[in-house]
C-alpha cells in the first residue's frame, strides 16, 4: 500500500488533467488537541469528491458544502490565490465541527493547483524520492525541488514549504512470503522499501509493487545502501550465508534497527558464530535484535510480520518495550519449546 500523500496528489493531478476544478487543503497549524498532524493534506474535486483527510471527518463536510456550493452561505472560489481558514477557534465551533475539546487547526486551501507541478511531485514520489513543494502564498505559484532529508512543514508570510516522500528506509534481506507482508506494512508506514535476495527462485515470484528488488549479495547491498539514522535492516532468510555478514555490516552503520528472524536457538548460534569466527564481542553485538518482533502469539507469516513491524515502529518512535513483550523472555517464562507459539499472555508487574 502506497503512502497516502501520493494517493492524494495523484488523484488531484488526474482531476486537474481531466479539466476538473480541484482544491488542495494542507494543515499548517494546530493548537491544543488536533485530529490530524501538521503537513497532512486532502484533495477535493468540484463535485465534493475527496481523497485524504485533514480532520478525520470533522471538517470535511463543511469544506465539501462550501466548495461544491451546495446551498452554503459561505462558498469557496474555484480559482484564485490561496486562502487560510481556522476551525475550532470558539467552543461553539469546536462542538459544531466535532473537534476535540480545545482543539483548533488552521488549513491552507489552494485552488486549481498547477498540473505540471503536481506531475513533478507525483513522479518523484512514485520513484521513491523526497521532494519539497514551495507555494507562493500571494499568487499560488508552485516550485518543486529535490529534498535531501525529511523536514517539517514550514510556513511564513510569503511561502509554504511541504516536504513529501519516504521519511524512513527499510532494507529487507530475503524475498519470501513474510517479506511481502512486512514490505506492504512498511510502505503504508511511509518507509521506502528495498528487498535484497540473490536467489532467483525467490525474487521471481515477488508480488509487492513499488518495492526496489535487487539481486546483489546482502553484505554488498548494505554497503551500497549506506544506512543512516532513518534506516532499518531486517534479515528474514534464515540462511547464515546471506544474513550474517550483512547484519555485521549494518551494525557498523547508524541504522536505528538491525535484526534477524529465527528461533532462540538459531539466534544464539548466530551470536556464537559471530564471536568465534568474525571477531565480534557481546558489546559489539548489543544492537543486534533477535528473535525480531514483539510477543503477540504469532502463528502465521502475516502475524509475525505484524509483530516485527510493531517492534520497528516502537524503536523508531523511541518507545522502550517492556520485557513482557520480548519474544525470547516470554517464551522462557512460559516454558515454551523453541519455535512454539502461544496466545498473548499479559504479565502483571509490581
Please characterize this protein's 3D structure:
The model is unreliable at 340-350 (pLDDT under 50). The protein has helices at residues 4-17, 60-68, 91-97, 115-126, 177-188, 200-203, 218-225, 240-251, 264-277, 301-316, 327-334; strands spanning 22-31, 41-45, 50-52, 83-87, 104-111, 131-136, 142-146, 154-155, 159-164, 168-173, 191-196, 212-214, 231-235, 257-260, 288-289. Helix 1 runs antiparallel to helix 4, helix 5 packs across helix 10 and helix 7 (218-225) runs parallel beside helix 8. It starts with a helix and ends in a 16-residue tail after the last helix. Strand 10 (168-173), helix 5 and strand 11 form a beta-alpha-beta unit. Helices cover 33% and strands 22% of the residues. The protein has two domains: 4-164, no CATH class; 168-334, Rossmann fold (3-Layer(aba) Sandwich), CATH 3.40.50.720. The chain contains eleven helices and 15 strands. It has 350 residues and is α/β, with parallel strands linked by helices.
Brief description of this entry?
This protein is an alpha/beta fold and 350 residues long. The chain is 33% helix and 22% strand.
How far apart are the first and last residues' alpha carbons, in Å? 41 Å
Shape annotation: elongated
Main β-sheet: number of strands, strand sense, barrel status?
A: 6 strands, parallel
Mean pLDDT across the residues is 87
Q: Poorly predicted ranges (pLDDT <50, ≥5 residues)?
A: 340-350
Highest CATH level, the class of the largest domain: Alpha Beta
Helix content: 25-40%
Q: Order of strands across the biggest sheet?
A: 12-11-10-13-14-15
| Count of domains | 2
Which CATH-level-2 architecture of the largest domain?
3-Layer(aba) Sandwich
What class do helices, strands and sheet pairing give?
alpha/beta
**Helix and strand succession?**
HEEEHEHEHEEEEEHEHEHEHEHEHH
What is the name of the CATH superfamily of the largest domain? NAD(P)-binding Rossmann-like Domain
Q: Total strand count, please? A: 15
- Portion of residues in beta strands equals 15-25%
